[in-house]
């Protein structure tokens, strides 16, 4: 199994496509890293401004809510202009958000900077997946899994770095160290991301259009929106969105409150809590690489359910652990949650033809990521009213629902038979 997984992604790194995969992965490592480091520096923010669990949940929900709500405009921008432009604009806004966090000295500015940070990382969200899916049509899930795994690697390292830096220089420096790294990666993106995506045919759940997925500025925004609305009613799009909504509720809530849970419920030391939080993402890296290869060889939709099923006993062990080693086992299994993302993203990106891929995928990401941002808010409210333990137990129920819904997802191969709605519109006598 290990040799199969390694062999499945090792061949991706070669030529210009390999360089593109590396820089896109570095971009994802930093942008998701910024959102994950944010909860890691929350204790420092709490010390400065003094607020409770509910406010923590609102701030974490804000960064993810802004990230989710901007996905649709980001995807529309990519379809009407280019994925390259969407990526570069997203990185620019992200750097503005990080700068504002460094310079802000009031709670109002903290809130605004949090929203800007989430917005910047969201603009480039749809394009990241679509660029990789087009660059690696025969290994879409594996390519996405490499990018996701890079994010998991950053998430396992950045919180530790943030904790050390925060202890010496304060919480602003604990997240601000990402800013110069973003500048370097943005230069690489400018040089390596093509102005137009390769015109090779990309498998699509609704028709497999051979039209390039970039440079579609000749089509009107109204045509794009109408075509996307038609495609969004498909069974694969609807059930896939519900599936990823459940995954995102669990992911945002777990990553937003896991360090706090370790400190306040599991009663481990701050250093041990930081290591366990990093371990969640370190083992998540392996889960994501494995999920990418499994998804390409089996079916992406079913693969999401498989890894959600792995995470459920992990969370239950975390909730019942009375020793550090059991807590460690629970964290390792819980990281199966991260394995849901490569196959889930591939499945949803493939639910649309290339001509409206950015807009359709962006709308879906806005729904499930924006909806998922309610998870930390709900868990925070439950923690204040009852206990954080009960909040985490509710997430186990959510993941159980995810497993059930994935059983209803049409296999990806069965859904790749539809018509490109933009082509249907162009051929209509009414037009």
UniProtKB/TrEMBL annotation:
Q: Which UniProt keywords apply?
A: Membrane, Transmembrane, Transmembrane helix
Q: Where is this region: Disordered?
A: 202-221
One GO molecular-function entry:
transmembrane transporter activity
| Domain Major facilitator superfamily (MFS) profile: from-to ranges | 19-413
> One GO CC annotation, please?
plasma membrane
Transmembrane segments in this chain: where? 20-38, 50-70, 82-103, 109-131, 143-169, 175-193, 237-262, 274-294, 301-319, 325-350, 362-383, 389-409
Give the matching SUPFAM superfamilies: MFS general substrate transporter
Entry-linked InterPro entries: MFS, MFS_dom, MFS_trans_sf
Answer yes or no on keyword Nucleotidyltransferase: no
Reading the lineage from the top rank, the first entry is: Archaea
The protein's name:
Sugar phosphate permease
Organism (species): Halorubrum vacuolatum
């Amino acid at each position: 199994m290990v040799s199969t997984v390694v062999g499945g992604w090792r061949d991706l790194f070669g030529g210009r496509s390999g360089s593109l995969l590396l820089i896109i992965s570095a971009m994802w490592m930093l942008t998701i890293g910024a959102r994950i480091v944010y909860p890691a520096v929350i204790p420092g923010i709490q010390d400065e401004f003094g607020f409770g669990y509910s406010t923590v949940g609102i701030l974490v929900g804000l960064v993810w809510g802004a990230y989710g709500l901007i996905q649709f405009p980001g995807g529309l921008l990519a379809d009407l202009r280019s994925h390259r432009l969407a990526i570069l604009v997203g990185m620019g806004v992200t750097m503005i958000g990080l700068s504002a966090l460094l310079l802000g000295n009031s709670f109002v500015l903290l809130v605004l900077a949090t929203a800007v940070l989430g917005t910047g990382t969201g603009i480039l969200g749809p394009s990241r997946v679509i660029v990789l899916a087009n660059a690696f049509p025969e290994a879409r899930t594996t390519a996405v899994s490499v990018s996701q795994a890079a994010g998991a690697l950053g998430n396992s390292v950045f919180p530790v770095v943030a904790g050390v830096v925060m202890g010496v220089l304060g919480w602003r420096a604990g997240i601000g160290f990402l800013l110069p790294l973003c500048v370097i990666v943005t230069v690489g993106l400018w040089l390596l991301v093509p102005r137009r995506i390769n015109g090779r045919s990309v498998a699509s759940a609704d028709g497999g259009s051979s039209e390039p997925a970039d440079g579609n500025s000749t089509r009107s925004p109204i045509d794009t929106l109408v075509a996307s609305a038609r495609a969004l009613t498909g069974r694969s799009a609807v059930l896939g969105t519900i599936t990823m909504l459940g995954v995102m509720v669990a992911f945002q809530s777990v990553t937003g409150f896991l360090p706090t849970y370790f400190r306040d419920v599991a009663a481990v030391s701050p250093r041990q809590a930081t290591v366990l939080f990093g371990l969640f993402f370190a083992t998540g890296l392996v889960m994501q690489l494995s999920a990418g290869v499994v998804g390409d060889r089996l079916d992406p939709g079913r693969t999401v359910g498989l890894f959600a099923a792995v995470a459920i006993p992990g969370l239950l062990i975390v909730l019942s652990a009375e020793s550090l080693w059991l807590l460690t086992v629970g964290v390792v299994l819980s990281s199966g949650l991260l394995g849901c993302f490569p196959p889930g993203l591939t499945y949803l990106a493939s639910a649309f033809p290339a001509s409206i891929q950015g807009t359709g995928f962006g709308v879906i990401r806005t729904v499930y990521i924006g909806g998922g941002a309610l998870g930390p808010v709900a868990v925070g409210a439950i923690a204040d009213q009852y206990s954080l333990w009960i909040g985490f137990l509710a997430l186990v129920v959510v993941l159980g629902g995810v497993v059930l819904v994935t059983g209803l997802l049409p296999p990806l191969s069965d859904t790749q038979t539809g018509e490109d709605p933009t082509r249907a519109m162009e051929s209509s006598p009414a037009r």
